[in-house]
Amino acid sequence: MPPARKTGTSTSETESSAILAILVSEGKLKQEDAEKAKMAFVTSGVSVLDWLVQQELLKSDDVVVARAKYLNVPFVKMSEVAIAPVALGRVDKSIAARLNLIPFEFKPITNELSVAMANPMDLAAIEFLEKKTGCRIKPFAALPNEVKDSIATSYEQSLSTEVTAALKEAGSQGDVEVKTVNIRKVGEFIREAPIAKIVTTVLEFAMKSRASDVHIEPLEDRTRVRYRIDGILHEKLVLPRKIHDALVSRIKILSDMKIDEKRIPQDGRFNFTTDMDEVDLRVSSLPTVHGEKIVMRLLKKSGGVPTMQELGLRGRALKNLEEAILRPHGIILVTGPTGSGKTTTLYSVLFKINTVKVNILTLEDPVEYQMPGVNQVQINPQAGLTFASGLRSFLRQDPNVIMVGEVRDEETAELAIQA
Hints:
By secondary structure, the protein is α/β, with parallel strands linked by helices. The chain is 40% helix and 20% strand. Strands 6-5-4-9-8-7 form a 6-stranded antiparallel sheet, with helices on one face. A 3-stranded mixed sheet has the order 1-2-3.
């Protein structure tokens, strides 16, 4: 049985003073507030650090980071680290929850398991893990709430079982590499359940986390999976480099791309459906130094278009936009980084003004939502239909409203202003 989980950590007077000194030197705490805390300890007996947090003079997160520095233990922020399924599979969820820790990286060469802990000085827990896993444990300090959240989400989305099964399958059939000549055998391998399950789980996680893009990137020693959520890329998974080629081939087959063509970029698309939702995926492959990189853009097909209020517009900002879209002339520009919701914002505007009295034309790449009553056009550069040429044609279609998906060149910008 694992040792009982500790509800808190006692901090000695010497340790508290050292932590206070670190916080003051880093500008996290004022010297006069530190002195007040020491007086409060004398008069009330309340811990110096606890008193500062209670009085909101100090953040509890800063205390954890400073304590890690005092103890000379590396600190890790769980929101910025990818949890390797191989590491996760070495510690059961029940043990992780009981001890408030989570493994996030495993180095087979040194047999070292990196573990994020709410209390990195819990020597009994470290000793127990070493006996249980047979690995050398490298403890990291982490914020207790982040460790708890990571346990809840990471084990639910774990790919450890699927990755292990895929590795066993690869071992029985030999390494499946990009340069394999026998394409038929590669095809048989990538249709096997483990590889298919990994792709499914990666996409299900993307849908649950409301990601706009999924990046599957080959690195020298591993494959990382990153998700763009609210415009920011988050590294969530690390997979063994050994299965990268089979994983890419599986996605390329689903996207109607050539699996034996690895020298040039390719584009494709396919639909993915779960019990609750359906998405259309735009897939792009790109040959890199370490192998092919895959990027999948998720385009939600169900659920309808959110209203401007549901997007978070409130007060004066909402009133200004509502007044602007009702004017018969003018231009509205929506700008922002990739995946930030520009197109969705424009669709919510079109949804509000879409009536039989107006002729609405859209020029997009691709058409992300299909709206009844709106004339939507997808660009086709190979056929000569670009944003600029399409916009020029739109002006002869007696439009009331034109939506242009991207304004990235001078010609399109000039036409938009003239229109």
